[in-house]
Amino acid sequence: MKLDERGLLIVLSGPSGVGKGTVREALFKMPGHDLVYSISMTTRQPRDGEVNGREYLFISRDEFQERIRQNKFLEYAEFVNNYYGTPFDTIEQQLSEGKEVVLEIEVNGALQVREKMKEAIFIFIAPPTMEDLYHRLRSRGTESPEIVEARCEKARREIELAYLYDYIVVNDTVENAADKVIAIIRAEHAKTERTIATYRKMFPKENNERK
Description:
The protein is an alpha/beta fold and 211 residues long. The protein has helices at residues 20-28, 61-69, 88-96, 107-116, 130-139, 145-159, 174-189, 192-202, 205-208, and strands at residues 9-13, 35-38, 41-42, 57-58, 73-79, 82-87, 100-105, 121-126, 167-170.
């Protein structure tokens, strides 16, 4: 019997352009973990190089709205006329199997998850400076200046909500940020509140009493 039978939900969040995806990719390349990536659904069109079922599950707007009506999302949001959401049933199944599920989402979605799954670990990926974040957003070259400006303004508001998270990890370098995230996950596995109930089952009181 393991001390922590149910898996952990690790929520990596932060403003657009901060490098959440890059940190997550580096995290998954590190040894000594059992992480699985929760793939979100979206109604936006795939970008060059993106594959359905790898970066996102790409579905139609009608399909997404039907899933909303059926309450099938752990969280969802609409930004720049596109929906993004996390399928609830997939997350619950993975956690029940004892997996460490990494959810990479925007700030609004993370706050929705916090309301529904308070036991999750919430990690805010922050930029070293606002200037650094603005540069990253503008250097993508995949969106119009108007959309970039909207993302910059949204990012400023989201950074002000970092205090609502359990941890803040500054993405100064990808390797340093990934090291900090994996350290957080390992520490969370050892928390007494996560393990004490199962520990007591493994070592019943009567077995500890001396005859």
